[in-house]
Amino acid sequence: MHGLCGYDRTSAKECEMHTWTDHLCVALELDDEKAFLDYNLAPLRLRRDIAILGLLHRIQLGEAHEDFTKLFPIDVHERTTFTRHNARRHKYQFREVWGKTDYFNRSIFSALRVYNVLPEYVVEAKTVQEFQSRLTKTARVACRAGRARWDRMYSAH
Questions:
Q1: Alpha-carbon gap, residue 80 to 108, rounded angstroms
Q2: Cβ proximity of 121 and 51 under 8 Å
Q3: Residues in Cβ contact with 61 at an 8 Å cutoff, skipping those fewer than 6 apart
């Protein structure tokens, strides 16, 4: 067991890979659910996904640098066919980009697919802070309900 973090690791270099919340949760003997519900310490993967979706929302609000708008173009086409997939979509859509490699499809571009099917009440938030707060509240509800993989609910993979 490594002395700095309490994990079963052999070196300080491996210890550096953990976040401060991982260290705190180990020290306090908290699991992900208790840390999130009682102390508002969301797991790293959930925080990362909410941050990426926050960037996409900033683009939708027109508050991001123009280079981001070019990289993640907004889809202005109206859905003319009714499918179960299109029924889940709100009016604030990004043009989805698909790559030829799994590496590309597991990158930030996969968040476009997640953003496009978020509930409408979430994407209608007027600020990024309000948007991310709504995502966090929804994740907290899923965690309380015992939903499997609640910490990956905003991940496309």
A1: 28
A2: no
A3: 126, 127, 128
Identity of the amino acid at 3:
G
* Better-predicted residue by pLDDT, 10 or 157: 157
Give the gyration radius of the chain's Cα atoms: 18
Going from the C-alpha of 36 to that of each of 40, 45, 150, the distances in angstroms are: 4, 12, 11
For the beta carbon of residue 156, count every other beta carbon within 10 angstroms. Answer: 16
- Find the helix or strand (DSSP H, E) in which 74 lies: strand 74-75
DSSP percent split of the chain into helix, strand, coil, nearest 5: 50, 5, 45
pLDDT digits (tens, 9 = 90+) for 42-79: 998 999 999 999 999 999 999 999 999 999 988 876 65
Buried b (16+ CB within 10 A) or exposed e, 124-151: ebeebeebbebbbebbeeebeeeeeebb
Residue 110 CB contacts under 8 Å (≥ 6 apart), including other chains: 155, 156, 157
